[in-house]
Design goal:
Elements (H helix, E strand, L loop, with lengths): L6 E2 L1 H8 L10 H13 L8 E5 L5 H8 L4 E6 L2 H7 L2 H4 L5 E6 L12 E6 L9 H11 E12 L1 H5 L4 E5 L2 E5 L6 H11 L1 E7 L24 E8 L3
Parallel strand pairs: 1-8, 2-3, 2-5, 3-4, 5-6
Antiparallel strand pairs: 6-10, 7-8, 9-10
Helix pairs in contact: 6-8
Length: 234
């Protein structure tokens, strides 16, 4: 991968990327991550209060609605990405209550214990330290709540992979921290979260378009870390 491309912090990166960012998985890594996330999510979210932290253009809010959730909150750092997520309102069931709010993963604009389920797809790596993020996730979820959280697998960083995109004719990368499994284990123990399940999905060759430019090693290693966590009693 070309390491000479400009690397941007998340806010300016997504300000550029938002206009072309789809509301669904749009590359082989995201397809692999999404299959694992959906497998670890509760099969029914009917009656549950669902928060999507780092919701972006609303990918997992859509999946939550498909599983019956009607009380949903999406939080994202990027106002342009939240503007993309407003398309959710056009397709939501009449009884759905959806709110979108701008906020940081370490300071979610939500009350304590306000979520039954928290989802976070491929966003925690945008924050340098994992523990403050998981501490905030624990704060906003009720005891017993389910959290399903994913990140890019550390093996990708070891291989020099970047999260890159093209905007206005230029290729950019988004700055992304590497959080190892040991970081997750330690942080969860400190903030009151239990690790109930871990998935390390690999690419499906069927997701790779003909002629795509990618590192062939990617077929032999996991591309994401996906955790199902449980909020422990206080």
């Amino acid at each position: 991968m070309d390491t000479a491309i400009p690397t941007l912090d998340p806010a300016p990166a997504y300000a550029l990327w938002a206009a072309s960012y789809p509301a669904q998985a749009h590359n082989p890594v995201m397809h692999a991550e999404e299959r694992a996330m959906l497998a670890l999510m509760p099969p029914s979210l009917d009656g549950e209060r669902v928060v999507d932290a780092g919701c972006g253009s609303g990918r997992y809010l859509r999946h939550a609605m498909a599983r019956g959730a009607t009380t949903l909150v999406g939080v994202d750092l990027s106002a342009p990405m939240l503007a993309r997520a407003t398309a959710l309102f056009e397709h939501a069931p009449a009884m759905a209550r959806i709110a979108l709010a701008q906020g940081d993963l370490t300071a979610l604009p939500l009350p304590d214990a306000s979520a039954d389920v928290l989802l976070c797809g491929l966003a925690v790596g945008h924050v340098p330290q994992l523990e403050p993020v998981l501490r905030e996730f624990a704060r906003v979820t009720r005891p017993g709540a389910t959290l399903v959280v994913s990140d890019f697998h550390p093996v990708g960083a070891a291989l020099g992979w970047q999260r890159d995109f093209r905007a206005e004719g230029q290729r950019y990368a988004v700055r992304h921290a590497t959080h190892y499994y040991s970081h997750w284990h330690t942080a969860c123990a400190r903030v009151g979260l239990a690790i109930d399940a871990v998935a390390e999905p690999m690419l499906d060759p069927a997701d790779i378009p003909p002629g795509a430019r990618f590192d062939p090693v990617a077929l032999d290693v996991p591309v994401a870390l996906v955790f199902r966590l449980r909020r422990l009693p206080d």
